[in-house]
Amino acid sequence: MQIRPVLVALKKHRLATLLIALEIALACAVLCNAVFMIAGRLAAMRLVSGVDESSLGFVQLEGFDPKAANDLNARVISGLGAIPGVQSVHVINSVPFGPQAGAFGVTLDQAGKEFRGVPEIYLGEPGTPEALGLKLVAGRMPGAEDYQTIPEGYFPASSNVLVTRALAERLWLGQDPLGKTFWTGKTQFRVVGVVANLSVQQYDEEGERGAEWTVFVPAKPGPLLAGTYLIRADPRELNRVMVGAKIALAKIAPDAVLDHQQSDTLPALRERFFATDRAMAGLLVGVIAALLGVTALGIVGLASFWVAQRRKQIGIRRAIGATRGDILRYFQTENFLIVTLGIAVGMLLAFVLNAVLMKFYELPHLPLYYLPVGALVLWGLGQLAVLGPALRAAAVPPVVATRSV
Q1: Cβ distance 172 to 180 under 8 Å?
Q2: Gap between the Cα atoms of 346 and 105, Å rounded
Q3: CA dihedral (311, 316, 321, 326) positive or negative
Q4: How far apart are the C-alpha atoms of 369 and 350, rounded to whole Å?
Q5: pLDDT tier at 166, thresholds 50, 70, 90
Q6: Mean pLDDT value of segment 233-239
Q7: Can you state the percent helix, strand and coil of the chain, rounding each to 5?
Q8: Which of 42, 126, 145, 391 is the most exposed place for a label (fewest CB within 10 A)?
Q9: CA–CA separation, 345 and 365 (whole Å)
Q10: What is the reported pLDDT for 101?
Q11: What is the torsion angle, in degrees rounded to the nearest 10, for the CA atoms of residue 197, residue 199, residue 200 and residue 205?
């Protein structure tokens, strides 16, 4: 199939060609960015929390007198621990997918000049790392001597802490983090152990690269660590245990208010946390389907119109020896050239659209490999859309075509 006759024919229909090419360009730009956003949301939903989610529940109490914090902690731990099926209860400030309990900028020097990021902080009493199911990859778990009472400044002057492998790489790329120190204000942290994973409490697009920048600070329960509890139970019993815990808390802690939104199993908290992401992904899939459908209809309509217009030319070509395959390839080639023009413009539009999304919605840069994927989809869509009209054109008998005007 020679390209020149096709190009000559397209020049005679410049407006129609331009309009369908622009439609394809818009589809290409939206398709690449929408698929990129869907991939980002799916990746977020696969976030590894680093804890034994299926065995854990979280309880948050509010409205109690801070002066009665020690008494409240004692009553809740004793009362919840007595529920059949409960393996352990620990005071903790938050859990993955739970309320954000603290995020602090950290530096490698006390003067605050070597800034390294904003990790989230977990505070927990003795036994909490083990109850969470954290996997130690270097160093040791905090010992009894590492747990300190939290002062009014929120942190002791110096703490021996656990950090995630991701945060250790961020702070000391390629170095052994054990024994190294970092700072937040006047508070010094010394790394005694490294865990494989522990996600932040509130993951978002802005914190995507730091989704596992977390620090576990050993702490004793008290006025600044009270009212939030980690419950561990057999996964098969966890839902029943959490229902029983909510009922029991009305008697155990009548002086506090249970936050029903935050008090749930970790699988339920994860499900609720990513509900918006699932909705967004579904909406984007619908947008993509609608856009591709409209684009395909545009191609079908234009091709059908051109087939009707060219019946006489098709008949003449058939009469002088053109086969059905020749006619079919002609329309497929014509469509390929139009789609290619649209894709070329669409790739530029894709980067422009991505730049706008980066500016206003903090999205990352669109990777280049999304462009050929989008191009393949649109080429395939174009060939499928034009196939019906092209087959009808190829099936026109030469005699009928030459008699039509």
Answers
A1: yes
A2: 41
A3: negative
A4: 12
A5: very high
A6: 95
A7: 55, 15, 30
A8: 145
A9: 19
A10: 86
A11: 120
With the C-alpha atoms ordered 275, 281, 284, 289, is the resulting torsion angle positive or negative? negative
- Paired tokens of 20: 């369908």
For residue 71 the two structure tokens come to 């008494």
Q: Phi, psi (5° rounding) for residue 78? A: -70, -45
- On whether the CB atoms of residues 113 and 96 are closer than 8 A, the answer is no
130 contacts 232 by C-beta, under 8 angstroms? no
Average pLDDT value for residue range 62-88: 94
Kindly state the average pLDDT of the residues 127-145: 96
CA nearest 98: which of 6, 228, 216?
Answer: 228
SS3 state at 136: strand
Which residue has 């170095």 as its token pair? 175
CB 241 within 8 A of CB 229: no
30-34: average pLDDT: 92
Helix (H, G, I), strand (E, B) or coil at 58: strand
What are the tens digits of pLDDT across the range 257-286?
999 999 999 999 999 999 988 999 999 999
Span 1-26, mean pLDDT?
75
Of residues 303 and 131, the one with the higher pLDDT is: 131
Residue 24 has pLDDT above 60, yes or no: yes
With beta carbons less than 8 A apart as the criterion, state whether 31 and 24 touch.
no
Q: Identify the CA nearest to 361 among candidates 176, 208, 150, 184.
A: 208
Q: Residue 190: beta bridge partners? A: 160, 181
What's the pTM? 0.80
Instruction: Note the pLDDT of residue 150.
Output: 87
Q: What is the pLDDT of residues 201-223, one digit of tens each?
A: 987 754 555 789 999 999 999 99
By the 10 Å C-beta count (0-12 exposed, 13-18 middle, 19+ buried), 240 is classed as: middle
Asked whether the beta carbons of 303 and 350 are under 8 A apart, the reply is: no
- CA dist 84 and 362 (Å) reads 47
Beta-sheet strands, E only, within 169-234 = 181-184, 187-195, 214-220, 228-233
Answer yes or no: are the C-beta atoms of 153 and 161 closer than 8 Å: no
For the chain, the structural domain boundaries read 3-45+276-403, 53-273
Which helix (H) or strand (E) is 397 found in, with range?
none
Stated length of the chain:
405
Measured distance CA(35)–CA(373) in Å, rounded: 10
Ordered alpha helix ranges (H), 163-237 = 165-171
Q: Is 155:122 a contact under the CB 8 Å cutoff? A: no
